[in-house]
Specification:
Elements (H helix, E strand, L loop, with lengths): L7 H43 L9 E3 L1 H4 L3 E2 L3 E6 L2 E4 L4 H4 L14 H6 L16 H17 L1 E6 L12 H26 L4 E5 L3 E5 L14 E6 L7 E6 L4 H6 L3 E2 L10 E4 L5
Parallel strand pairs: 1-5
Antiparallel strand pairs: 2-3, 3-4, 4-5, 6-7, 7-11, 8-9, 8-10
Helix pairs in contact: 5-6
């Protein structure tokens, strides 16, 4: 009974062969594609390793003599701050010959950014006389130049070696900046714990200090009372701070706090006498 369908067997076999060939071809194509991808990856890696780095791709490290050339509009106006070199030619009105800050060009005059003095003593990269906070301010200047002007490279000398790696002095600056950041965070925390008072001077009543839930621009869920907060127990420098008397911070900082004379202990407002100013 199947004899009449015998002629279909060759047709069925042909179809299977066609599909199997297509499947095999697909497998071959898949492996060829994978193999070509591997070869391409190997070639790319070899090309990367064999291609020399051009001199132009390297960060330029200036010598002091090379930097001295950049003090005019023809060659360009370059300055250095903390050993980093910037092209400030677009600011020629400030840095060009005869301009206010021309003395900064062609050298590293980091110290003068803080002292504001343009003599030989201050036009130097030696900032050993600066405090931690002043170094932080100098670093703020560095960030300003990074944002506004064109960075050109490093200056071989106090802060960078001839291969552009940081010197010990550069690491010291970074350590000072870390300390400045820690101090800033500590001060921010202290200000949050002891917000500044509102202060008002009146020719008739004198100076008045008082606390609110927003005094000092710091919002909180307590008001506090005015106290003189000294930088340290033995310091003469202080500011008016709003203090929460039942807080842990108050108990820990009692030695640096003092009440205003003649002001009730729990009053949120005090008239400051001349002796307390």
């Amino acid at each position: 009974m199947f004899s009449k369908y015998i002629w279909l067997l060759p047709l069925f076999a042909s179809i299977c062969l066609i599909y199997s060939n297509e499947y095999l071809n697909e497998i071959k194509f898949h492996f060829m594609q994978k193999g070509l991808h591997i070869i391409d990856s190997i070639y790319t890696d070899l090309t990367k390793e064999s291609t020399p780095i051009s001199k132009d791709d390297k960060e330029q490290v200036f010598t002091a003599n090379e930097l001295k050339k950049y003090t005019n509009l023809k060659d360009g106006l370059y300055i250095s701050i903390l050993g980093q070199v910037f092209d400030v030619t677009k600011g020629a009105k400030l840095y060009g010959p005869g301009a206010t800050y021309h003395a900064f060009t062609g050298r590293d005059a980091s110290l003068a950014f803080i002292t504001g003095e343009f003599d030989d003593k201050d036009l130097t990269d030696d900032i050993s006389s600066l405090s931690v906070q002043q170094v932080k301010t100098l670093n703020d200047w560095l960030q300003f130049y990074n944002e506004k002007y064109i960075y050109k490279g490093k200056l071989n000398g106090r802060y960078y070696n001839e291969d552009g790696t940081p010197t010990e002095e550069s690491h010291n600056v970074q350590t000072m900046l870390i300390h400045a950041k820690e101090k800033q965070d500590e001060e921010k925390h202290r200000k949050k714990m002891f917000p500044p008072c509102n202060v008002e001077w009146n020719p008739n009543s004198g100076t008045v200090v008082w606390c609110t839930k927003r005094s000092g621009g710091i919002e909180r869920d307590w008001i506090g009372v005015p106290r003189m907060l000294f930088e340290s127990p033995h310091s003469q420098q202080y500011r008016c701070a709003c203090v929460k008397l039942d807080s842990k911070e108050y108990e820990e900082t009692k030695g640096a706090l003092r009440e205003y004379a003649g002001c009730p202990k729990t009053s949120i407002k005090c008239i400051v006498k001349t002796d307390d100013i």
